[in-house]
Amino acid sequence: MMLSMDADQSPRMNTNSNGRRLSTIRSGMTLVEVLLVVAIGFVLFFVLIPPPGHRHNRVIAARMTCMRNLKQIAMAELLWGADNGGRFCATVSTNFGGSLEMLHAGQVAAHFEILNIYLKSAPTLYHCPMDSRQATNATGIKNGEVSYFVSLDADFGRSNLCLVGDRNLTIKGSDAQAGMLVLRSDSKAAWTKEMHSIKSWERNGVVALPDGHAEVVLEKTMARLTQLGAQANRLVFP
Q1: CA 102 to CA 104: how far, in whole Å?
Q2: Residue 22: its pLDDT value, please?
Q3: Distance between CA 109 and CA 143 in Å, rounded?
Q4: Looking at the DSSP assignment, which residues form a beta bridge with residue 215?
Q5: Transmembrane residues, as ranges (predicted)?
Q6: Where along the chain do its domains lie?
Q7: For 176, which of 72, 99, 124, 169 could close a Cys bridge (C-beta 3.0–4.6 Å)?
Q8: Is there a contact between 131 and 149 (Cβ–Cβ < 8 Å)?
C-alpha cells in the first residue's frame, strides 16, 4: 500500500510489498552528536593548552628552586673559603686545591665539583629548572649541563660583586658565551628572557653574592651590580 499527498498536503506512508515501512537515510548530526563533539573539543583544549596562570606558576616555582640552588652554592663557597684562608675557591690555584687555572680554561663544572663535599644535593644543584640545557645527573656534571656562571674576582670584602649567577646574561646586547667575560660599569649588562621571564617584556635572573644570600635581579635594577667603578668582575660561563 502507498500513501500519497492529497491537495491538502496530508502525509502518506510508503510501504513495501511486505507492508513494512520504507526507511530513508538521514543526513546531518543530531543534537546529542553535536554536544558530544563540543565536549570532546573542550577536553582537548584544556589538556593541550595550559591555563593562563600555568606558566606563571611554573616560572615562579623554578625561580624559587634556582634561588635555593644558588644560595646553597654560595654557602658552599663560603665554607670552602673558611677552610682555605678566607679566599674563594676560584681565586686559589689548583696547586693549593682551588680552581683558578680550571676556570681560566673555562672548566666551570670542574670548579663546582670541588664544592661537592659541602653540598648534599650536588650535582643537581648546578642546573636551573628553566634552563633548556640537559639537566645534570647523579653521576657527574659537564659544562654543557651547568646553568650558572662563576666569578673570578669576588671576595669576602666586595659584597656588590656577583659570586655565582644565571648564565642568561647579555653584555652590550650580545649573549654571554662559554668562557670568560669581563663585567665593567659600562658593560650594559642585561638578561635574556630564556630562563625566568613570565612576561615577554620582563627579563630577570638570579644571582648569589659573597655574603651568601641569593636574590632575583630585575633588568631595571641590574645597574646596582655593575656599578664597579674602576673595578671589574671577570665571570666564567659554562
Answers
A1: 5
A2: 43
A3: 5
A4: 207
A5: 30-49
A6: 54-237
A7: 169
A8: no
Q: Measuring CA to CA, which residue among 150, 153, 72, 158 is closest to residue 118?
A: 72
pTM of the predicted model as reported, rounded to 2 decimal places: 0.72
Task: Tell me the per-residue pLDDT of 46-85, one tens digit each, with 9 for 90 and over.
Answer: 556 555 555 567 777 878 888 999 999 999 999 999 999 9
User: What are the phi and psi torsion angles at 184 (to 5°)?
Assistant: -125, 175
End-to-end, the C-alpha distance of the chain in Å comes to 90
- Each residue's pLDDT tens digit, 177-212: 888 988 887 788 888 877 766 666 667 888 999 888
**CA atoms of 112 and 88, how far apart (whole Å):** 12
Residue 37 exposure: Cα atoms within 13 Å on the Cβ side: 6
The most confident of the ranges 20-34, 121-135, 159-173 is 159-173
Largest CA-CA distance found in the chain, in angstroms, rounded:
113
* DSSP symbols for the chain: -B----TT-----BB-TTSPBPP-PPPS--HHHHHHHHHHHHHHHHHHS--HHHHHHHHHHHHHHHHHHHHHHHHHHHHHHHHTTT--GGGS-GGGT--HHHHHTT-HHHHHHHHGGG-SSTTGGGS-TT-SSPPPBTTB--GGG--EEEESS--TT-TTS-SEEES-EEETTEE--SEEEEE-TTS-EEE-SSSS-SSTT--EEEEE-TTS-EEEEEGGGTHHHH--TT--EEEEE-
Q: Which three cell numbers stand for residue 40?
A: 570532546
Q: How far is CA 178 from CA 11, 130, 184, 237, in A?
A: 85, 19, 18, 5
